[in-house]
Design brief:
The complex is a heterodimer of chains A (153) and B (551).
Chain A (H helix, E strand, L loop, with lengths): L12 E8 L2 E6 L3 E6 L15 E5 L2 E7 H4 L12 E7 L2 E7 L1 E8 L4 E3 L9 E7 L2 E6 L1 H6 L3 H4 L1
Parallel strand pairs in A: 2-11, 5-7
Antiparallel strand pairs in A: 1-2, 1-8, 3-6, 4-5, 6-7, 9-10, 10-11
Chain B lengths: L1 H31 L3 H20 L3 H19 L6 H19 L13 H12 L6 H4 L24 H25 L5 H24 L2 E3 L1 H4 L2 H12 L3 E6 L4 E3 H22 L3 H6 L6 E10 L2 E8 L6 H10 L11 H7 L9 H7 L5 H10 L3 E7 L3 E9 L4 E9 L2 E6 L3 E6 L5 E2 L7 E4 L2 E7 H4 L11 E7 L2 E7 L1 E9 L13 E6 L5 E5 L1 H13 L11
Classes of the chains: A mainly beta (153), B alpha+beta (551).
């Protein structure tokens, strides 16, 4: 499950990449706590569909976000091949439900193109070109902050 | 070295504030009973603070406590009278001392600026005939200001009696033994019956461990009560009335968080009792009451709750006045008939309290809405009873702890909920003939000779309702209202450790939190008050969820 996580990046900052829909996303590896297989979640009442529920992470209740739905894609059934990326957001621990984890890459500052202000609504930090892959670097804070919770309530 | 010192500083501040409490309670006792023992104890308290403060180079504290000592010395010698004036000055000095201890210890109060109260203390000494300047004796040593260890540390530390720790150590030892027995058993060295026995024992020990660890959070209510004698004394001075404070059940234990949250509302109730409940001495005499009002504060355990009562023998609530004021303020319709209890309840309304003339005539009402809000935030409830001319009792009911909830574990579809026992009355199977009501109202469930509106539990917490074939009803009661909630299955009684969902996410309306069950599943803890609110909203929308299985 954690294959690739240990491959240290050669230079720049390490990013964990994962698959959501047809796209590849990346998250700052220093924010990633662990990667877990999918297990059924406990739904919370009054939350948007992008929050399928909470999981029991060794005795702690951790909310899990369905990244597909959060990014406005069609939802899909999750199965044992799905993965939950457990990340640290400030003092909080959160889970990101994704289709598959790919590898850890190094993204140099020069390769990352910041998102222009007009695209400021999306929870995206930058778009980077690594080899022939286009990686969308997610902004974890924003991903959770503009979750649409208030709208759904 | 520096680190060590900081560590001791925390201990110093904690101990010093306890000694300051002792100083204060001693001084208060000294007023009514001029006892040599009490005086000695006060002296020792002041002396200990001085000695310890000296070690940390906290000069202002050293100077102040030294001045206090000097005055106490004169009292012991008999050269200074133990009268209201001198004790009053010592009490102010105690306040000043607390201020210094709170201020963050070092550096806050400049040593260059001796407080006015020190001058007053010196004046007392001079009056006693000796001109010893306290400062000369307490020659401040060079300051050892070790890093600014904030005073706020107190909030995160807990003093635990050694006895409680000892029991934990013993229990841990027992668990280690039980584990060793099990390890042997699983290696096949022991028969199955022994294995089962060892497993049972381990289960019991783990439960005991859980209880004892949670008990570490418990503090006696005396930690809160300790502030009250001084408060009453100050109120007596401020109002010119006389009041005797009676404390009962000080040893009753409750969760530290609950105890801290209760302190403000409780002091507020005492202020009300003296300020508005108790009549001036001459009025009391005219009514054949003792001149000094009696304020009784009691605490006791009742079920899973702590009940704290504040009773005064004052003038009681004037229902007619309250009613009139409430009508004037548009809180009730003037013609409405209200029971006595309903009228008393009006003083808890936010719009009611603020105006002075109301409190002057009716005798109560300042910030009672705040009191209620604070208590409810702790998961408690406030009720009030009063009879005119005889006094008022305010009753606070608080959960023993916020860390554990005991309740009924139920299932609705895939979801597991815990319904706190505080609200549960009974659970019953819904029979076809027992449900009434048409499509325009919530269905009504007949519970003996009463009709109770019935709702689907997931529906009330805004969860997708799923199927409507649930036929077990749990009857809940809150503040005299009842509702029935429908569930698929009742698993029985469970005690869980509450986890705040907002720790990692955000607060969910209608839920108190979540809990992890023994098998790793997550149960959602419902907030009974939230269910009632939700039911009320649904009722007003006339939502029908009669369900196919019933009428």
């Amino acid at each position: 499950m954690a294959a690739g996580v240990n491959e240290a990046p050669a230079r720049g900052t390490g990013y964990l990449t994962f698959q959501v829909g047809a796209q590849q996303f990346a998250l700052d590896i220093s924010k990633v706590q662990e990667i877990r297989g999918y297990a059924p979640l406990t739904p919370l009442p009054g939350t948007p569909s992008s929050l399928p529920g909470v999981m029991n992470l060794r005795g702690t209740v951790v909310p899990v976000m369905d990244v597909r739905r959060r990014l406005g894609m069609q939802g899909r059934e999750y199965d044992r091949f799905s993965v939950i990326v457990v990340a640290t957001k400030g003092s909080q621990t959160v889970g990101l439900l994704v289709e598959a984890v790919s590898d850890v890459v190094s993204i140099a500052r020069a390769d990352a193109n910041p998102v222009p202000p007009e695209g400021g609504g999306a929870p995206v930090e930058a778009v980077a070109l690594v080899g022939d892959r286009v990686l969308t670097v997610l902004d974890l804070e924003k991903l959770w902050r503009d979750n649409g919770d208030e709208l759904a309530a | 070295m520096e680190i060590d010192l900081n560590q001791f500083r925390d201990a110093f501040f904690q101990e010093a504030s306890e000694l300051a409490d002792e100083l204060e309670s001693g001084l208060l006792r000294l007023r009514s009973a001029p006892d040599r023992d009490v005086l000695d104890r006060i002296f020792r308290a002041a002396h200990s603070i001085k000695g310890n403060a000296g070690m940390f180079g906290l000069d202002p504290i050293v100077r102040l406590t030294h001045s206090i000592e000097s005055v106490l010395d004169r009292m012991r010698e008999g050269t200074l009278a133990r009268d209201e004036g001198s004790i009053g000055t010592l009490l102010s000095a105690t306040d000043e001392l607390r201020g210094l201890l709170r201020a963050d210890g070092p550096g806050a109060a400049g040593p260059e600026r001796p407080p006015a109260v020190e001058a007053a203390l010196r004046a007392l000494c001079r009056a006693a005939g000796e001109g010893v300047s306290p400062e000369e004796n307490a020659a401040p040593t060079g300051s050892v200001r070790a890093g600014a260890a904030g005073r706020e540390h107190n909030a995160a530390t807990l003093r635990v009696p050694v006895e409680k720790i000892d029991k934990l150590v013993r229990l841990t030892g027992e668990i280690a033994v039980a584990q060793a027995v099990l390890a042997q058993a699983s290696a096949g060295a022991l028969p199955a019956s022994d294995r089962e026995q060892a497993l049972n024992l381990l289960g019991a020990q783990v439960r005991e461990l859980q209880e004892r660890v949670l008990a570490l959070r418990m503090v006696p209510v005396s930690t809160v009560f300790a502030r009250l004698p001084r408060l009453v004394a100050d109120l007596e001075t401020a109002t010119g009335k006389r009041a005797v404070l009676e404390l009962c059940g000080s040893e009753t234990e409750l969760d530290r968080t609950v105890a801290e949250g209760m302190a403000d509302p409780l002091m507020h109730l005492i202020r009300n009792a003296v300020g508005h409940g108790v009549e001036p001495a001459e009025v009391r005499k005219a009514h054949g009451k003792p001149e000094a009002g009696r304020i009784r504060v009691s605490a006791r355990h009742q079920g899973g709750y702590v009940v704290v009562e504040v009773t005064d023998d004052g003038r009681g609530l004037d229902t007619e006045q309250i009613r009139r004021k409430a009508a004037q303020r548009g809180l009730i319709r003037p013609q409405r008939t209200l029971t006595e209890d309903q009228i008393h309840d009006l003083i808890f309304l936010p719009g009611f309290s603020t105006a002075d003339e109301v409190t002057d005539v009716s005798g109560r009402g300042v910030g009672m809405d705040v009191v209620r809000r604070n208590i409810e935030a702790l998961g408690g409830a406030v009720t009030l009873s009063s009879s005119k001319g005889e006094g008022t009792t305010v009753r606070i009911r608080l959960p023993l702890t916020l860390a554990i909830v005991e309740g009924l574990l139920v299932r609705c579809g895939e979801s597991i909920y815990l319904v706190p026992f505080s609200a549960v009355r009974e659970s019953l199977r819904v029979s076809r003939g027992g449900v009434y009501g048409g499509p325009e109202t919530a269905p009504l469930l007949r519970v003996r000779d009463e009709l109770v509106p019935m709702y689907d539990l997931p529906d009330l917490v805004d969860s997708p309702a799923g199927d409507a074939s649930r036929n077990i009803a749990v009857v809940l009661e809150d503040d005299g209202n009842r509702i029935a909630i429908l569930v698929d299955e009742v698993f029985g009684q469970h005690q869980v450790v509450v986890q705040a969902i907002e720790a990692n996410y955000r607060k969910i309306p209608g839920l108190l939190g979540a809990a992890i069950l023994g098998d790793g599943r997550i149960a959602l803890i419902v907030d009974p008050a939230g269910l009632f609110e939700s039911a009320q909203r649904r009722g007003s929308r006339k939502e029908n969820r009669g369900g196919s299985g019933r009428e």
